[in-house]
UniProtKB/TrEMBL annotation:
Residues 17-44, 51-148 have a biased composition (Low complexity). This is Uncharacterized protein. Residues 159-172, 183-198 have a biased composition (Basic and acidic residues). The lineage of its organism: Eukaryota, Sar, Alveolata, Apicomplexa, Conoidasida. Residues 1-198 are annotated as: Disordered. It comes from the Eukaryota.
Length: 198
């Protein structure tokens, strides 16, 4: 029974009770004292009222039954509709779980493989780069040493040559000065055209 049907049945019962109390009250007012017998008019009036009440009660029952049937049919129809929806939802959830599991496994496997490959790739080039850097540093050191040696050699040669040049220049200057000091100054005789030593 649906809650709506319960409320309807309770209302019908209350109507029946009200009708019964009204009928008893009407009969009590219509009947003469106990000494006198009921007249035909009072009997017919009570019969009509009872028939009307029964007719109303039957109509209410007829009206109540199709409503209850419709409500029961609607409830069954809703249950039938809910059941396939629940089954579909369960099937969809199962399918999603099945689809989700292999994706997770594949993703985990791919991530593990990628991490391993990246670690290997990172580890190998780091070693290679370190070796290359060490070799380059050694070559640079050798080149710097060679350059320093050659520069030092060139420096010493330049210094020697500079010293030699300076000494040679000094010697030449000194010899020139000595010659000038030794030789007397020569005077030119303009008349004869001969140089005369003083």
């Amino acid at each position: 029974m649906l809650p709506e049907n319960i409320f309807i049945s309770m209302g019908v019962k209350q109507q029946h009770r009200a009708a019964a109390t009204a009928a008893t009250a009407a009969a009590a007012t219509a009947t003469p004292p106990s000494s006198a017998a009921p007249t035909t008019a009072t009997r017919t009036a009570t019969k009509k009222k009872q028939q009307q009440q029964q007719h109303q009660h039957q109509q209410q029952q007829h009206q109540q039954q199709p409503q209850q049937q419709q409500q029961q049919q609607q409830h069954q129809h809703q249950q039938q509709q809910q059941q396939p929806q629940q089954q579909q939802q369960q099937q969809q959830q199962q399918q999603q779980q099945q689809q989700h599991q292999p994706q997770q496994q594949q993703q985990q496997q791919q991530q593990q493989q990628q991490q391993q490959q990246q670690q290997q790739q990172q580890h190998q080039p780091q070693q290679q780069q370190q070796q290359q850097q060490q070799q380059q540093q050694e070559q640079q050191q050798q080149q710097q040493e060679q350059q320093q040696e050659t520069y030092a050699k060139h420096k010493t040669r330049r210094q020697l040559t500079d010293k030699g040049k300076e000494e040679g220049d000094r010697q030449q200057r000194q010899s020139i000065i000595q010659q000038l000091n030794k030789e007397p100054p020569k005077r030119r005789d303009e008349d004869k055209g001969d140089t005369v030593s003083s």
